[in-house]
Write the structure tokens for this entry.
Amino acid sequence: MKNTAFYIATRYLLAKKGSTAVTFITWLAALAMLVAVAAMFIIISVFSGLEDLNQDLIANLHADLTVKSKEGKQLPDIDKATKILSANEEIAHFSKVIEEKAYISFRENGDIANLRGVDSAYIFVNPIHKNIFYGTYPSFKFSNEVLMENKLNNRLTIPVGEGADYATILMPKPGKGMISKEDDIFTKRDIYVSGVFPGNDQLDNTIISPLELVQELLNLPKNAAYEIVIKLRNADHADEVKADLVKNLGSKYDIKTKKEENAAFWKMINTEKLFIYLIFALVIFITTFNLAGAIIILQLDKKEQAKSLISLGMNLKSLRNIYFYTGILIVFFGIICGLILGTVICYLQINTGFIKAGSNTDLPFPVRVNFINYIIVAATAGIFGVTVARLFSKVNKRHFKTN
């Protein structure tokens, strides 16, 4: 048997006859829901794309696992630690690293740089040599051959690949006492830049050098390191390998996965995404007031017809369902059409990149369409819409009594 209330609701929504004002308000509510749903879907898809972009940007900044000392900077019992790492079959490569701030000068230019000393195995953990756009990666035949971030090199105007033009790197000396000359303050070494690589927010002002150079500047032993970065054969096993290393290395070491190293960064991204979601959820909630208005106007406009239906034997519940189903149809029209519109715009952006991330860049806004985004948006709009439709579809039998 046909659902009478639902059939009448569809007639109210689709019939060409009736009040022009009611029709306008009804479809205005549907259009408002459509736009709100499409906007929310697009924004959430953009944030999903930003997550992918950020993952790509930091993919090579942090190793699958990083081993540091829990007390002090220098790793204790480093020879024992390297033997344990070498014996672990899940570990493909590992590299010793020392990272410190230093001052670099060339002629009349100078700047503070982040000096990262690495051994020759570093490129197997972090393939930074693949990103060099000018020059070559240090050969490690000489301890003063370095790779420099592009913007830092541009500011200092250091020639690349020319051994005759040396820059000077200075590292403050630890200690106390009287200072009589500059050599009492700094340890100096001459360096030359063999290549330049593009930077980003986490690699700005960075210099990659052989580990020996930083050891000399800091007056550290030849086997000293501040951390060991590890490349796994299977990055998905990071948690299992970490648990194994914690057991074998002991309590002196702090071991973190790539996700843990970037915990603050991802927390910030997820917080921003949550606030954006809450803002657009509020927009959809406000949009549902158009739906409430449409249902109320419909009740007033169809009051005489409602009296006739009551007289013909329709119960109050079925009458309420007419207005409820009308609201549901408006909501689902807005959700389905909004998701379709949002999907079309997202795929246009993915394929054409017509919206740029800024006025001075050719980088398009990143977008990723996820199935979970459909669920989030549809559920949010559906919950608000169904709730409002249920609340405002209630009618009182007194309104249909004749005097």
